[in-house]
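Blackboard transcription, Thursday session:
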Amino acid sequence: MNKLKIHDVSVVYPAAQGGDPVTALNEVNLTIEQGDLVVALGASGCGKTTLLNLIAGFIRPTDGYLTLGDSRIEGYPRVAVGLDIGDEVTGPGADRGVVFQKHALLPWLNVIENTEFGLKLQGVDKQERRERAAKFLKLVGLEDFHQHKIYQLSGGMQQRVGIARALTNDPQMLLLDEPLGALDALTRESLQELLLDVWRETHKMMFFITHDVDEALLLATRLIVMSPRPGRITHEFELNFNQQFLETRNARQVKSSPEFIAMREKILAIIHGDEIAA
Amino acid sequence: MTSNSLPMDALSEMPESAEATKPSINKPAPAVTTSSNGRELTPFAQMIVRQLNKLQKGSPVASGEYYGQPGAGDSRIIALFSTLFFIGLWALVTETGMVRPLFLPSPVDVVARMVDITLDGFSGATLGQHLAASLGRIFGSFALACLIGIPLGVAIGCSRVMRGIFDPLIEFYRPLPPLAYLPLVIIWMGIDESSKIMLIFLAMLAPVVLSARAGVSSVKIEQIQVAYSMGASRRQVVTQVILHGALPDILTGMRIAIGFGWTTLVAAEMVAAERGIGFMVLNASEFLVTDVVIAGIVIIGVIAYLFDMLMRYMETKLVPWKGQI
Ligand SMILES: Nc1ncnc2c1ncn2[C@@H]1O[C@H](COP(=O)(O)OP(=O)(O)OP(=O)(O)O)[C@@H](O)[C@H]1O
Ligand SMILES: [Mg+2]
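(Written on the board underneath:)
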């Protein structure tokens, strides 16, 4: 069983001209296991994206280390690291799919080509990758847009292609940085449901960043609340509102339950406290 | 009524035949019949507004077409009139004898001379032969510059080592005027065709390399990162993401390079050329045959312009997404 472990990780960005170095993350510990849907909430600038970049392997911790299974995630290969756990060193890879806040689609490809891009990179033959891409495009409601160019889509549609692309690639772990922020309420709810369905079926690990407390509570099995300067995890909650949602398929009912409302108040109090302090 | 973007204020100054009417919700008036301050327009004014509206295209307005970059839109008709105007002006000042033919021959003379040198030739070759020699040099050098410059620029953009090796070299020679290193090229390569191609090639190489390199660094980091996290190898990132992302800049660099090539052509043909449009112009200027000089200039200008149009057309075909995303 694979597990992502983050051990005492700190990230310090070098000082900008005339400023101090920014401690974006300070001694963060976190373990994500198979089947965990971890949602990160926190004020702007508390290091959520930095944490996601670390897990994806895009950046390297200043201190501490991350492991996924037996291999150690490094922003880029270091010579002579003197590893104490595992042997393998891995950068970003197909085992961890990423959806960015703003889509990063390739404008020279059309919708279906973008969606199947990962499979193409891995040499999956055309027929199969088309089928798999089409399946996920249908799930995000874009079955009629296969041949459209990226710039012919609305912002929300572009974001949905980004999600379909990540799902088509079938990674072990999905890293999502505010993926639904730009969507209207209705599409947003249906995509929340889609992600939950995928999660329940595949038991992928997910790391999901959001600013929306309701979304966080509805999706998470584990909710981490982060606070800025220096960025760290201050609270962690085990939740099961997503079970309720998957049973009832009624987001509004779940969200109006007394437990949900109480939890939301609690979280909002923490975040507002942080924002006032910051 | 705001649906018309035409100058209503001017029209509302016209004699009024009706008193002010309020736009009704149930029965919306046709867009044209009232002015911006709600007064009904005369039938004549309505007709004018309709005609003016027809002049504008019926296609939906693209975002940014009007409230976007100043100066966006089609300028071809204006360009046509401007061209005709300047040719007319040229004809006027020459045909009336305001300017002597030695300084500026008339358009008719120039055209006649063009026909003449096409058939009988000038300084030892026909116009077609001069042109073929020059075009061969230009496009031979261009092909060479693209073949070497694009991979080199991409490599410089993608690799620290390549950048370290080639950056000083290119940055050093790039600002040098081709005339400055022309003697050296001749000493090394002689006075035959190869030195001419080399000179033009060198002038073209720098813009191609630099634009390919700029194109590489214009690729969005997120696009590269997403490719990596879908399992791309370094090589795949270069071939599947960076090359495509750099294409708009590469095409721009190729356009600039061709321009540099024409500039350098005359310099290259100064040395021991027997054919070439640049040689023909130089030769004509020595004997003060102004109409051949002008004919040569016009031909170079027209060919360069046509090629640029071709490149721009290729741009819309190859990178339709340029600036869109
Ligand atoms: N490339 C960088 N160079 C320097 N400082 C950075 C860089 N990226 C982020 N930071 C700093 O690190 C801190 C955390 O940034 P991060 O992007 O992780 O925040 P975030 O929690 O994702 O915020 P948001 O919710 O607004 O997206 C910020 O103070 C930011 O200024
Ligand atoms: Mg962020």
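Lecturer's comment: The pocket of magnesium ion (ligand 2) is lined by residues A 48-49, 177 (CB under 6 Å).
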